[in-house]
Each structure stands twice: as C-alpha cells, then as structure tokens.
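Our preliminary data section would be incomplete without showing what the modeling component actually yields. Below, a chain of 412 amino acids is followed by its predicted structure, encoded as tokens that our downstream tools consume directly.
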Amino acid sequence: MEEDIDVTSHTEGLNGLSHECKPLDEITNGHSNHKPVMNGLIIGHNVKDHTNGSAPLRSLPISALKQNGLLQTLAAGGDQPKPTEENVELEKARQEWDALENVQPALTEDSTPTPLISFNEALQYFQTTDLGDLLKNIQPTIRRTGLAAITHFLFGPPRLHRELLEERDLVFAIAQCPVDNSQTVHMRVLQTIYKRLIGSRLDCPRYGAHWENIGFQGTDPATDLRGTGFLGLMHTLYFVMDPETLPLARDIYKLSQHPTQNFPFSVMSINMTRIALQVLREEALSKECNRRQQVVGVLNEFYVATYLHLYQLWKTQQKTIADSGFVLKEVELFAKKNPKQMLRRLEVFLKERRAGGIPRGTSSDPQAQQPSPSLGERAARAGAGQGSKGREMHFTGVCDLPPDMEGEARLI
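Predicted structure:
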C-alpha cells in the first residue's frame, strides 16, 4: 500500500499572516473534515472569523473590492462598509459610467461660436484702419523703361481712372498685411472660411492639423500667405460667403479631396489670388474696372473666374498634383491674355447654374468638355510629356513659379 503523504499548505493570509490548512486526506463520506486554521484559530461554521481583532470577513466580489477600494481598507485593518452601503455605491458608480456614453459637448458662455463675418464687413475694417506704413511699400503697376514703356503707352491697356487709384492701392496694401492674432476681424475671417468649407458651426483652434483639412500646408495658415498677405484670405472669404459662388467653392473643395485628383484647396486659392494681383498690376483689368467704376468687385470676380478655369481644366483633363506646376502656369498665361473672356465664362457659368443645368466644363466626361482649342492642344502636349504621375511631388508654392515674361515684377 502506498504511503500516505501528509500535505500541509501554507498560504499568505490577509494582513500578511500565515494561513495554514490541515492535511487534505481527512475526508469522510466525500466531505472534508479539515478545518482551515488562520492565526491559530480554527474557522468553522459556528465560529466567527477574526483577524487581529478586526471586523468579520464577508464574501465580496473582487470587482466590488476593486471599485470601492476595499482591498486597501482590509489590508489596513479598517472597518468594512456594510453590504447595503456597498450596493448603493456600486449602483451609483454604474449610473455614472453609463452616463459617460451619453455625454455631448455643450457650448458654454465662454465657448460661444464666433459669428461669421461677411466680405463687406471685413473690407470695411481695412478701409477704416490706418495702412499708411503698408501703402509706402506697394507696387501697384509694372515699372517700365525705355522702349517697353513707350510700347505700353501706345499699345497697352488703358490707364486706371484717377478716382479708382485709392481703391486699387488699398487692395495692394491688404496684400501686404499679415495675419494678426490680436485683431478680432482677422480671427473671424479664418473661422468663417473654415466653418463654411467644413460645414461646422463650432470654432476651431488657431493652430493645429485641422487647417490641413482645408488645404493649408501646415498648422498655421499665416505661413502660406507669402506673396498675397491677408488678401489671400479675403478672396477665399468672398468665395465662401457669396451665395452665388459658395456652391462652386464647395465643388472645388470636394475635388480637392479626391483620392487621385486631390490638391491643397487653400494653397491653390492663394495662387489664384497671386495671379489676379499680377493681372491687376499689369493693368489688364483696368478697362473693366473703369467700366464698372470699381476695383475690389472686379478683382473678386476675376479671382473666382481664375479658380473656375483651373477647376474645369483640372477636373476634365484628370489632372493630379504632379501636374500642378504646369497647370498653374497655363492658368496664369491664359488669365493675363484673356481677362475679359475669363470674366465672361464666370458669368455664363453662374447663369447656367442658376437655371438648374450642369454648367459647361464641369463634367469629367471627355465628350462633354469643350475647352478652347489652344488650351486643349497645349494641355494635350503637356500631358503626353509628363513622366510618372504616381510618385509624390511637392506642391508648387505661392512664390515658387519663376517669372519669365518681360517686365513682370516680383510678387509682394
């Protein structure tokens, strides 16, 4: 017969004291007769369990102990809460936890959304602000000398009427104005642009990666405004706040999020402002400004017309970010040579949209597009000469395009 093995187990009891169990072979009729011993006391059905004189131990779920901190209480020898108190605390904790799933962000008095600002309100701010220091550094026209000056005088566009010179100079002064965080109007312009494009009613932080969602290149939109200053934001503000042009702005923004045809919306918009400024500086818009007796309104529409031209070319010819340098140069050349045609195209586009039809030049179907012959031929030649377009390419910056035309001044 095998020798019985006397097994005695020692376990670490509560309060760091030894907990001794008697041999495991004392079983009668399938029931164990051994009595666990704790600190020298035999724990039985009719014997209360005391540990160093503390309160009796009761059976509790381990989850309850964790949630209510009872493990620490027992280890310290403190009194244990009554079961009724524990159940009340557990129920309260469950209710608080369940309530977390239903928490919704609430607007407090301090987080009231910044009101949207219209283009006219923002323009009025600049009209009533002292921009004397900025006006000293503007270059509203191209400086020509010698034969170029004579040719421009004899065969160039008409000069801007004298009564419009102050309005023109204001435009170029705004184009030199940087973003000022201390100016409420500046911050409202930024917030309005973001909200109108994203469709949000809540303000966004001044800095952050969310600005990249609307096409800025970093966490601070101000760093992308070189060459156009605050005028770059003013044009975008006009684009998204005018009821007639807002649908077009959102169409362009949607295309900028396309999986393969994506481009940075805001950086591209700043480039459209840069082109519009250069056309104004070269006096190609003077005739239209004289006819309408205004400068700001004509420049706003020309900016939109330029962005529309790029949008139609980009969408219908399946352009990608790899084509950005060529597309920008193509748009700039076409805008300088055909300012009247650009404005006319915008007028027709908006009229067709008001009528409920699909404006020409916005369908991606090659059979539906009807670009001008010269534009189509140049685009086809350039498309054939492009290399691999799948590789990542750095987007052409606002002032990265080198001037290649005689008399073209460096952008402000």
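The mean pLDDT is 75. The longest strand covers residues 9-12. Preliminary results of this kind motivate Aim 1 of the renewal.
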